[in-house]
Amino acid sequence: MSGEDESGVPTASAVDRTGARAGRRSVSRRGFVVGAAGAGALLALGLVGFAPSGEICRPPGAQDEGRFLGACVRCGKCMEVCPSGVIVPAHLEDGIVGMRTPALNFSLSASQLGSKLGWCDHCTASNGGVARCVEVCPSGALSPDDGSSFETMLLGKASINTDWCLAWRLKGCTICKNACPLDAIAFDEHNRPVIDEDACNGCGSCEQACVSLESASVGEGLNSQKMTARAITVHPVQA
């Protein structure tokens, strides 16, 4: 069992195991070098940025981007425990520094979410209003002020692309207003939705509910353009 025969010479099986471990280390190092080289090439070509894009919505307690990036250890615990299913890893195109850090995605489909909420209620329904991502964060990267709640959190602000919004184009759609738990969406004199920025906390309920993408495209003929996002989206704010 020691890996040597009676004369102290390593057995064939021990040599095989040692070689396999060395091979795995070699592959791991080679993969790291190749990955780093690939990221460097993309950076040099201008296809990705070094710093985060500035358009990444973060979980509760991460709105000070500089402090957050310095503290986050990319452990993924917040993603694992999020009952709403909206914390996802930031991608390479979001910036090399921010890659694999937690970001919020409020545009996930029903098939991706399953029975999960799809927007951030600060764990009000599942954990008494105490954000589970903050509870499990080992480094303090997610650390909102004491007493932070759904009403006081500020993840971002919703904005409406009026060229894509069904209510602005065709009238009649009230889905985002009906979905908003803070009454932060009102209708103007033409029955078009507008955001009350003082009331909006960026929870993402409106973005999750928006059905504009189901209308496929905007305009006709040569002027037609494919929509790439929902008509109402949440953009980050910095502390």
TrEMBL record:
Give the stretches traversing the membrane: none
Cofactor names from the entry are: [4Fe-4S] cluster
Domain 4Fe-4S ferredoxin-type residue range list: 59-92, 156-190, 191-221
Q: What is this protein called?
A: 4Fe-4S dicluster domain-containing protein
Tell me the Pfam families matching this sequence.
Fer4_7, Fer4_9
Q: Name one GO molecular function term.
A: 4 iron, 4 sulfur cluster binding
Entries under InterPro entries matching the protein: 4Fe4S_Fe-S-bd, 4Fe4S_Fe_S_CS, PSI_iron-sulfur_center, TAT_signal, TAT_signal_bac_arc
Provide the leader sequence positions. Answer: none
Keywords, sorted A to Z: 4Fe-4S, Iron, Iron-sulfur, Metal-binding
Family matches, as SUPFAM superfamilies: 4Fe-4S ferredoxins
